[in-house]
Design a protein that fits this description.
212 residues, 41% strand, six-stranded antiparallel β-sheet, single chain, 12 strands
Length: 212
Amino acid sequence: MTTRFLSAAALVACAGFVAAQAEKGSDLKAVAAAIDGYRWEFPCKDAMPENPKEGADCVSGLVTGDPKKTDNFSAEKAFGGEKGKRYKVTLRFRGVVEPMMYKNGTKDGDHFYVGGEPDNGTYNIYKLSVSSPKAHYFLNREDKVGHKIFTIDYTKTIEIDGGATVSFLGDGQNGRLISNFKKLVVADLKPAPKPFNGQFVQMDVVEVAEAK
């Protein structure tokens, strides 16, 4: 067997190629900088009781008028990248939420729901939408609603075209929400180590790759 050794020049070239590929990967994640770390937040209006009651709800701190019309928020962000290119974006969702039912879409895991529409008129809606390729997703799907609170922590990969608009919607629908009566904390997410007085979901970008 003949052993072959790379020349110094070849080694330098290989190292440069590896560095270029790493830099390319880093640059790709940067195209999603505008959406990285976005938070849906539903704060309770009043301070958290020292000993909350099991199943307690609270008045939404978002309400500024009619609770059925003002218990909501929205935001739009421009996704980076090149127009004409499509990207696979891996996202991590973590937070403290109440359950919500959705219909006419597709269940993907325990809490992620692709497409469809809300199937209840009183519980909190967490929605992520993409303008191109046109799609939307819900984040807190459960088979039943009820006065419970729980943490989520999962990753999903979606497709986003370069230059697309990414929209975020939170809708409490009725001016009340299930309080964080269990005082749940998601490690490493503010206000940890203290519990958030209400509900939230934080979305972090894990990886971006060009769709093939």
